[in-house]
Amino acid sequence: QVQLVESGGGLVQPGESLKLSCVASGYRFGNTVTGWYRQAPGKQRELVASMVGSFSTFYANSVEGRFTIFRDNAKNTMYLQMNNLQPGDTAKYFCNVKDDPHDYWGPGTQVIVSS
User: Fold this and answer.
1) pLDDT top residue among 100 and 71
2) What digits encode the pLDDT tens for the residues 13-64?
3) CB-based contacts of 29, cutoff 8 Å, min separation 6
4) How far apart are CA 22 and CA 106, in angstroms?
5) Nearest alpha carbon to residue 48 among 111, 115, 114
6) Could you give phi then psi for residue 87, rounded to 5 degrees?
């Protein structure tokens, strides 16, 4: 059974950083598409960053230059380093693995950016 569990969320002030982790059990990332999504209250879930394999990355315009997605395949863990956080980054963050036909999600971790 595949499980994804996120951690690392919290309450921070604008300009501060957080590092989110997503540990996968029962699964090895390999060359699949993995990513981080977020959902703010009243808004649709949106893609924040994704990786294909271990090197090809994509970032949403709103986080380009501030967030970095990376993986440690030996630990089956994916990360999202978030720097210079802003109130607009407040949301619940979810990790995702797409391995057709399967689409796996974690339960999410809350990030609140507020002064």
Assistant:
1) 71
2) 999 999 999 999 988 887 788 999 999 999 999 999 999 877 799 999 999 9
3) 54, 71, 73, 76, 78, 97
4) 8
5) 111
6) -55, -30
